[in-house]
Amino acid sequence: MNTKKSQSVGNSAGNNTGNNAGNSTGSELVRDYLATVEREASALPAERRQELVADLAEHIEIALAERPGGSDREILRELGDPRTIAATALQESGFGPGVLPGAGAVTGAGAGEAPGRRSPAWLVVLLPVLAFGLGYLWVPLGFALKVAGAVVLFRSRHWTKSQKWTGFGLTTLAPSLMNVAWFLFSYPNDPSQTEYWTAIVAVAVVTVAGAGWLWRVRSDANAGQRQ
Amino acid sequence: MEPGDPSNRTASKAESQLRKGVLEYCVLALMRDGARYGVELLRELEETGALATSQGTVYPLLSRLRRDRLVDTTWQESASGPPRRYYELTEAGRAALAEFTGTWPVFRDAVDHLLAPKAQPQASGETGR
Fold first, then answer.
1. Domain extent at residue A205
2. In whole angstroms, how far apart are CA A41 and each of A45, A95, A99, A114, B98?
3. Smallest Cβ distance to B54: which of A20, A80, A102?
4. pLDDT tens-place string over residues A68-111
5. Residue of chain A with shortest Cα separation from B17
6. Could you tell me the pTM of the whole model?
7. In total, how many domains does chain A have?
8. Residue A56 placed within a domain
9. Cβ–Cβ of A225/B56 closer than 8 Å?
10. Contact criterion met (CB < 8 Å) for B60 and A111
């Protein structure tokens, strides 16, 4: 899964700053501040937490060096609330609570670190089509595939909520209703061969149109992220 | 140490979400012309007004960019004070920035188009693409 990305990068950073940050920014205020960040970020893995504290310590030290008249109080005020920083760090690492629902589309998808496995778009699109085809061979299989298709569709990150509902309606709901209508109304009246095939083609067209539409409007949230 | 005071402006929720969404690319854009160190990046972000929240929240972002290999860091001695850690774009970072640079005008035009009052149909079709 995605969290493996953390592997090697950035751990040297923590050690490096540890050396020079500790001595010269020894003010009580700064120590308290960094301790608060560390405490608030306790949900982060130790390595990440230390890296964050080291980054901030380094910032404070350099900002002080560059601003001879500046006080550490002023610099800490500009850095901001330790809780906000810790919360941001939790979100960026994908460990945090509540990525904002709206922002998720932008930042969350970009981060690509939502927990859990997600199915690729092609599978989501393929399942209802298979459900249609195989459903004629064995109804329970078609039904199972429809359910699976709906589950992966609604869990997917490739579509917005309204797109998912449209897709679900076209690929799954409408064909199912057409099947039900067929058995309720046409089947008892002894349909002709032509009627039978027309119905099948109609269901196929709706299903494939829905799948094709889903495929066209999908967004590859992760594709743009690296290379 | 009193927290509070995230920035001198109180951004609306929509505004702060917007800013949050594009901040990453603003940061990448600042490195386009060469390596920058943290304090320098934050100062420039602050000056351009692109910063959504307090300065400190940029460090978790920088840390993620580093983990995602969009930026690389190197230490450089400084004439005054401690050594600085410089951030610079990797190939992947440059590609991500280029992609966003292409996406942004289209996105901006689309939103502008939706927000613009419909009263006078203007003949300037610059929203196409």
1. 121-217
2. 9, 10, 16, 19, 33
3. A80
4. 788 889 999 999 999 999 999 998 887 655 443 333 333 333 33
5. A103
6. 0.53
7. 2
8. yes
9. no
10. no
Residue ranges and CATH numbers for the domains of chain B are 13-115 (1.10.10.10)
Q: CA of A33, closest CA in chain B: separation in Å?
A: 7
In the listed set A111, A139, A171, which residue is the last one of a domain according to the structure?
A: A111
Tokens of A99: 């990525």
Whether residues B56 and A77 touch (CB distance < 8 A) is answered with no
A79, part of any domain: yes
Does the residue A227 lie in any domain?
no
- This model of the complex carries an ipTM of 0.78
Are A174 and A106 in the same domain? no
User: Distance between CA atoms of A178 and A8, rounded to whole angstroms?
Assistant: 55
Identify from B7, B22, B54 which residue to disrupt to test chain A contact, counting A C-beta atoms within 10 A and taking the largest count.
B54
Is the Cβ–Cβ distance between A123 and A84 less than 8 Å?
A: no
Q: How many Cβ atoms are within 10 Å of B15's Cβ, its own excluded?
A: 12
A75, A165: one domain: no
* Chain A residues closer than 8 Å to B61 by CB: 88, 92
Residue A146 and residue A100 in one domain: no
The pair of structure tokens assigned to B82 is: 């401690």
Do A6 and A77 fall within a single domain?
yes
Q: What is the pLDDT of residues A154-202, one digit of tens each?
A: 888 777 777 888 888 889 888 888 888 888 888 888 888 888 888 888 8
Q: How far apart are CA B129 and CA A14, in angstroms?
A: 46
Do the Cβ atoms of B68 and A66 come within 8 Å?
no
Whether residue A170 lies inside any domain: the answer is: yes
Q: A142 and A184: one domain?
A: yes
Whether residues B20 and A66 touch (CB distance < 8 A) is answered with: no
C-beta of residue A124 within 8 angstroms of C-beta of residue A214: yes
In eight-state DSSP terms, residue B128 is -
**End-to-end C-alpha distance for chain B, whole angstroms:** 52
Yes or no, beta carbons of A56 and B56 under 8 Å apart: yes
Cα distances (angstroms) measured from residue A60 to each of A133, A222, B78 = 64, 35, 15
Q: Which residues of A158-168 are buried (b: 16+ CB within 10 A; e: fewer)?
A: bbeeebbebbb
